[in-house]
Amino acid sequence: MDHRFQVSLRGVIDLLSHHLYSSPGVYVRELLQNATDALRARQQLEPGASGSVGLELREKQDGGPPTLLFTDEGVGLTEEEIHRFLATIGESSKREVLEARRNDFIGQFGIGLLSCFMVCDELLVVTRSARGDGRTLEWRGRHDGTYDVRVSEHPLDAPGTHVYLVAREDMAEWFTPERVRQLARHYGGLLPFPVRLTVNGATEQLNPDGPPWRRLYETAGEKRQALLAYGREVFGTDFLDVIPLRSAAGDVDGVAFVLPASPHFNAKQKHRVYLKHMLLSESAENLLPEWAFFVKCVVNANGLRPTASRESFYEDTVLSQAREALGQSLRQYLMDLAREEPRALQRLIALHGLSVKGLALDDDDFYRLVIDWLPFETSLGMMTLADYRRSWPVVRYTPTMDGFRQVARVAAAQGLCVLNAAYTHDTALLEKLPHVVSDAQVSAFSSADLPQTFEELTLDEREAIYPLLRLAEGVLAPFRCGVEVKKFFPAEVPTLYSSDAEGAFRRDAARAKEESDDLYAGVLDGVMAGAGGGEQAQLCLNLHNPVVRRLAAVESRELLKVSVEMLYVQALLLGQHPLNAQEMALLNHGLLGLIAARLDEGGGSSGPGSRGMH
Amino acid sequence: MGDWRQQVEALREQAEGLPEGDAKVRTLEEAVRLADTHGDVPLGYALRDGLIDAATFGGFPDKALVAFAWCRGQQKKDPQRFDPEDMLWKQKWVVGRLDEFPHISRKQIADALDDVEQSFAKLDAGQRAALKLRYQMARDMGDTAEAERLWEAWLVAPRDHLTDCRVCELDDELDHHVDRGEWEQAVKKAKPILDGRQSCAEIPHLTLGTLLYPFFKLNRLEEARACHVRGYAMVAKNREFLATVGEHLEFLALTGNLSRGLTVLEKHLGWALEHSSHRDRFTFYAAGSFLLGQVTADGREEVSLRLPKAFPLHAVDGGYATRALRDWMETQARDIAARFDARNGTARFMELLARNEVLAKEARLFPLD
């Protein structure tokens, strides 16, 4: 014959309290949930029925642990339901089954009650069903897993359920008036049924006003102040502004609060979410579109499905429609700002530029409205895109920080405005410009493009510089670097070294190969063989520079060679390109040569192997 | 001297605030170059440690490899100062992707795997991690019999501190079932991940892509839709997930969501053009070719797309002949497949490409809009 496992209820409770419930305080949530579900079931049975939930703390005269009486005027339980729901606790450990039961009005009753055993050893449930024979039943359950059911000697006047919890000695701290009030407000503060707490004969309603965003206010200003105060109370933050949220899909409404400081880029904002007016989660994450991380919100949803962990909502079509609609609410706010209060928009961009840019990337209309207001770093200082486009027809930008650093100074000296688009979203935003604004032109810019903006040599200068140019080409060929000569500013800069991103990476790989062992050196060859070729690096000599001018007149090939080598190494170092072994050898060799030449000039004895630069 | 150190610190801080991707990797590279320019080896090592992470999770396996190779050199020169043990975990990441570069030989891959195993053995650990690496390499290179043998060996080896987390291992196990057409099994095993009970840095991002086809085959299209909607949003902003984007592309083509598919294609083609993982490029191009084949079959001879300037067939007015686009994708996929198969000595990639013909027959409408 089949036998049943003997399951220890104590053990199950321990497991649940460690894994399912975040703190013993959730017993209040579970009781509120039970009461709410019972009230809704009653309303379904008797449309128009109203009811309330009561919590009453009864202190013991002898100073022993207090009793909490939890009452509702809901649908109540029949004897059959008591056996079915209260006695088959833990029937399945599968969360899905628990979930399915949660959606059933009374099915989850037992599961919720289980949490009470975290704070008491015995539970008394007195209940009269609206569907039953009018009897009042008593269920007494104990943490050792035993229970009994009998007809109550103290019948209830009307359908409903009373739950008595006698605090366990070591859990009395969860039964103080302050704690119970705080927990009941926390979980049930928005419930549409009155929730009342009675302590020492004095009764107060814990949820007198409903959701603050649905209340009526005299003026818009008053509403704003009240909601900001609510945001401060909920999140402990002084927010900048409030935005109403509404979605027909999922039946969602609430408010979004604009954060007073720039959030960390990948910080997902944690929102407070109520499901059918019961607190579901204080850390729901997937409610808003990804770009909208400039707000934190409080919402109630009547038609979204919670996930098993109850931390967020199940990703289904309804949620994605709701997310879209909530995003629209935020978008509308930003659109209104752009049209009516551009200064406020600029302040918002200064704090939450990433969110604004993120939305602009996804939304062409919004893009058109805000793109001109976005500030960018340029070689000529900070400016908005509108300022830039007023003065320069083509938007030149560098997609990387390194690229910007390489061109900024020289570009500025030529009066050339180059925009730094290395920050998040900037490159994508600029590349979108011609697709959205018909006459706009954009073009990626790198140090390799700079020489085209430089002044050409005269014919005489060309002739004069030719020997130097030929020699320099030969000297730098082994370094995969070409040479050209132009005139540019600032004059004190003798050279400009330029390479594209691939070139810089090739240099990194070559140095790594020098440092690494045979195994990885071979592997790196394999990696680089499959990489793109890229443009050759270029060294552009500046004929405005006095040293370069003098160099053009030097005849000694030996001196020219060392000078070009040193100019090359200097250009690399100035551009913060680390030297490889071969270049390091050039540097050492050149420096020693310089010292030797100085010694020669100063009349020092020249030793064997020294090389002068006469 | 203090000035450049401050600059390095500022770059490091800036990188920390950036999402995984291009900008973060470049910012750290710049910091590394600064340290190298000033000859500060310990700083260069510490910065590369972060660069390997950023490059691995931001879609630049080549850059992770270069940074690791440099560190490896320092470990060999001064193992007291640069302890190889601290980088064993990263070595797993780096070696696990060697097969994605067709120019790296089989011998080099085998040597790198042996090297991993020896490094782990010195610590008397890492057997399970090494076996998984070997299994995945054999699988990716089409060495079916060897993969089968290693699969068994991997799963019975004991866990230790060098083993990947349970969720990542579970995700890797799914591939085996998908390879064998065990759709039910794959979906069932993935349940804890799908329910959101378990996650990791790239899980469920990868898992949701893996399960699209199994759900499609099981005719559980609503679940496939949920995987697509949830999964695509997770991978759409990071080129590390190029191959997973390819899986979403395939799913959209398979279900006749051609317009959505083209939007995904135009958004991510730029990644494929310059991605250093040829395997990920292959997955994307193969899916792109399938999608464009479906668009052609739908009677569309021309499509308007915003493709990047770097695209060889780039048209300023955005008008493209569908067939020409399809042929280009197909050629890219075929070239890569040929190179991989030649290196591996197997036919896996050509077979993967041939799968497009099967998909074309299986396709059926399931509009998401």
TrEMBL record, chain A:
One of its GO terms (molecular function) is ATP binding. It comes from the Bacteria. This is HSP90 family protein. ATP binds at residues 30, 34, 72, 161. Belongs to the heat shock protein 90 family. PANTHER family: HEAT SHOCK PROTEIN 90 FAMILY MEMBER. It comes from Corallococcus terminator. Pfam families: HATPase_c_3, HSP90.
